[in-house]
Design goal:
With 691 residues, this protein is of the alpha/beta class. Among the domains are: 95 residues, Nucleic acid-binding proteins (OB fold (Dihydrolipoamide Acetyltransferase, E2P)), CATH 2.40.50.140; 189 residues, Rossmann fold (3-Layer(aba) Sandwich); 157 residues, P-loop containing nucleotide triphosphate hydrolases (Rossmann fold). Helix content is 37%, strand content 17%. The protein is built from 24 helices and 21 strands. The chain has a 7-stranded parallel beta sheet with strand order 11-12-10-13-14-9-15, with helices on both faces. Strands 16-21-20-17-19-18 form a 6-stranded parallel beta sheet, with helices on both faces. The N and C termini lie close together (5 Å). The structure holds adenosine-5'-diphosphate and magnesium ion. The site of magnesium ion has 4 residues, from helix 11.
């Protein structure tokens, strides 16, 4: 079967630059956080809908509420002589004095259109100061006759720096017009009727442009429908993939454990029972007739690496080669050093292959891999480059698997015949969902942590307590400890209390210059970033100010404090990952979650969950439960398992979607409408595997 995305979907997969108002700069911002195609924009769903015209009396409106009022203008305070000052309109409404404040205002629009004694209609967020009510940069201001220009129901989107709600609404309004008119229905009719679901297009349209109360009330139905679509698409893809790659392994391994046992002798700790049980799972896979396809789940710091090494050494003892792929150079290097050390007593050859390695050495390593001299090769994406050829690859281990896509996974598998596959992940997926997300991979779990660990103490503090935190860390620094300081990289335009990473870096550098603070974030050049983390690792710096780039598997055991600013902006699973960067030794570690002024009630509950438990699986369940849809910045992952809409349907529907998918794929009934679905959710890379 040859698969091509149906051509009538092309408009949805064109770049968003074709939408009026999205120039190169906006494109860059959107591409990073939302995606670069029209369809990505459509899947960026609003987290709430506000009713702008449903207003309380000014007397009863709390600070921060979004309201719309008619205001009689009484005075202008111009910023003509000092453009750094705001331009202000003073007015009256319901016996209150009103200030309408415009920052960064230049030009003459306001003077011309809203003169003294005119009545204007203003809509936006208010702040109260005693008897004065302030609108700062209001969302809308019109002469009163133009009141119709203010939308009644307005979807509110998760935002990112430089992108405001207005821009998103406008762009998405355009994007909606690009949805082809006659999409086929892929959900069986019976299910649609039972649930009273709208069509895919109706659901998207009504979520983005609610015009009536009915649409607002039905939001959850629309979301359910889309969520089902996504799971269904994912499952179809996974079933196709499974069908293609289920092969029998004729050369089963022998149960050889001598190598691993010998290495264990040099270790200064004992494996936990849970680690041993997982190792048994792996041995039985390796020695069976079917190819291993297993995912090893274990909380951060639970010791997954060593379990994977057990499998690797079994394969090597069976005279085959092993590959271990990790998402970053730093992590690869850490694995390399650990494995080299750990296997020192054996006569086996370990190699590191990253993009840093110079050309001559690379050629030599590539040769040694292809002639079978090297037993284990560890590396980044470089491992799947076409130039890497193995003599006899027996197992591929992929660490932090959610950072890789299905294509990358299948490329490693294609480096040998009947290659066993082991995926490692610390992103705890709730048990109820793991089957849906991972399809039919077998699952092993490391359930307990090494015994020498002290529980990390987690504290919750408002951002205003910054000075207090500063004092606490300065004590720790004097004590030779190391500190991670994490900030969300992008500030939301609306929220003024988000301090950007660079700012924090400057401030901390001033206060702690003798500990050489260093900076790492996703927008730095890879090389620079890794160098910075390395400085922290080698004690040249003792404070690492970072974005979430450090969430992936870095093991720096002597770091004992992690401070997370605006913790309410992160998902719980992500916070858990971040917290897992400390508590990696027998030293007492701390995690300090700092929240901003605008934290919601749910936000507070989420942070409390973090404080009260360290069970990653429990946290992952709570993450789904306590996630106000869209409240958290989605971290876009490159893996194919990224689900955007999962929180909106229940377990029964997840299973239903899976059953449909199994049925369709196993009976070869993958029809046009399914291809459309799979394409829409960008899962077509799976289906390409069939051609
Ligand atoms: P993760 O599961 O997060 O990948 P690692 O494999 O990096 O965890 O292990 C974290 C640290 O714990 C490493 O320094 C490792 O050597 C150590 N470790 C692994 N297993 C044990 C154990 N059973 N007892 C004590 N320390 C262990
Ligand atoms: Mg790890």
């Amino acid at each position: 079967m040859k698969f091509q995305r149906p051509s009538f979907l092309y408009p949805l997969f064109s770049e968003i630059t074709l939408i009026p108002g999205i120039g190169p700069k906006t494109f860059k911002l959107l591409e990073n956080k939302i995606g670069k195609n029209v369809i990505d924009l459509l899947f960026h769903l609003p987290h709430t809908v506000i009713n702008r015209l449903n207003n309380l009396d000014l007397k009863h409106c709390p600070t921060n509420s979004i309201i719309t009022k008619k205001i009689l203008i009484t005075k202008h305070i111009s910023n003509f002589y000092n453009s750094r000052r705001p331009y202000k309109l003073i007015g009256h409404c319901e016996n209150f004095e009103i200030e309408i404040i415009f920052f960064n205002y230049k030009g003459q629009y306001i003077e011309k259109n809203f003169p003294v004694n005119s009545v204007v209609i203003v809509s936006g967020k208010i702040n109260r100061f005693n008897e004065i009510i302030k609108f700062t940069n209001p969302d809308y201001i019109y002469e009163v006759s133009q009141i119709k220009k203010i939308p009644k129901f307005e979807p509110i989107y998760p935002l990112t720096a430089g992108i405001n709600n207005k821009l998103l609404r406008k762009s998405i309004g355009h994007a909606i017009k690009l949805i082809p008119p006659d999409l086929p229905e892929w959900i069986p009719k019976k299910v649609i009727l039972e649930n009273n679901w709208p069509t895919f297009s109706e659901a998207l349209k009504s979520i983005h442009i609610p015009n009536t109360m009915i649409e607002v009330d039905n939001r959850s139905l629309y979301l359910q429908r889309l969520s089902f679509d996504e799971v269904f698409a994912n499952q179809l893809g996974m079933q196709v993939y499974k069908k293609k790659y289920q092969v029998l392994n004729v050369n089963k391994n022998k149960r050889k454990t001598k190598y691993f046992k010998k290495c264990l002798e040099n270790l200064n700790f004992n494996l936990t029972n849970s680690q041993n049980e997982c190792i048994e799972d792996l041995y039985s896979d390796l020695c069976s007739k079917t190819q291993m396809k297993r995912i090893l789940q274990g909380d951060v710091g639970s010791g997954k690496t060593i379990v994977a090494i057990a499998a690797i050494l079994n394969v090597i003892e069976n005279s085959k080669q092993a590959a271990l792929m990790a998402p970053t150079e730093l992590l690869s290097t850490q694995h390399y050093n650990f494995i080299k050390n750990f296997t020192e007593s054996l006569n086996i050859k370990v190699a590191l292959l990253t993009s840093k390695i110079d050309k001559n050495e690379r050629i030599s390593i590539l040769n040694k891999i292809s002639n079978g001299y090297i037993d284990i090769v560890i590396g980044t994406h470089s491992l799947i480059s076409d130039r890497v050829k193995f003599n006899n690859l027996g197992i591929a281990v992929i660490d932090e698997q959610h950072k890789f896509g299905v294509i990358q996974r299948s490329k490693v598998l294609a480096k040998g015949e009947n290659v066993h596959l082991l995926l490692l992940t610390a992103t705890p997926i709730p048990r109820s969902l793991s089957m849906t997300v991972y399809g039919d991979l077998d699952l092993s779990e490391i359930k307990e942590k090494p015994k020498n660990r002290k529980k990390i103490i987690t504290k919750i503090l408002p951002l205003e307590k910054y000075e207090k935190v500063k004092m606490a860390i300065s004590r720790a620094l004097e004590n030779k400890e190391k500190i991670y300081w994490v900030c969300p990289l992008l500030e939301e335009t609306e929220t003024l209390d988000l301090v950007s990473l660079n700012n924090r870096f400057k401030i901390l550098t001033k206060s702690f210059s003798k500990f050489n603070p260093t900076l790492a974030h996703g927008k730095m050049d890879n090389h620079e970033r890794e160098k910075s983390i390395e400085r922290f690792f080698n004690n040249k710096s003792r404070i690492l100010i970072a974005s979430t780039v450090i969430e992936v598997g870095i093991d720096i055991p002597d770091a004992t404090i992690i401070i997370i600013e605006n913790a309410e902006r992160f998902g719980l699973a992500q916070l858990h990952q971040l917290r897992g960067r400390v508590g990696r030794s027998s030293l007492q570690s701390y995690c300090i979650l700092m929240y901003g002024k605008n934290i919601s009630e749910i936000g507070k509950l989420r942070l409390k969950t973090m404080r009260d438990t360290d069970d990653g699986f429990f946290i992952a369940e709570k993450d789904l439960e306590l996630r106000g849809p869209g409240e958290v910045f989605g971290t876009r992952q490159s893996g194919e398992n990224e689900l955007k809409l999962l929180p909106f349907i229940d377990k029964e529907k997840l299973i239903l979607a899976k059953d449909f998918a199994i049925d369709i794929v196993s009976t070869n009934n993958l029809n046009f409408e399914h291809e459309v679905l799979v394409s829409l959710f960008n899962k077509d890379e799976y289906i390409k595997l069939m051609s």
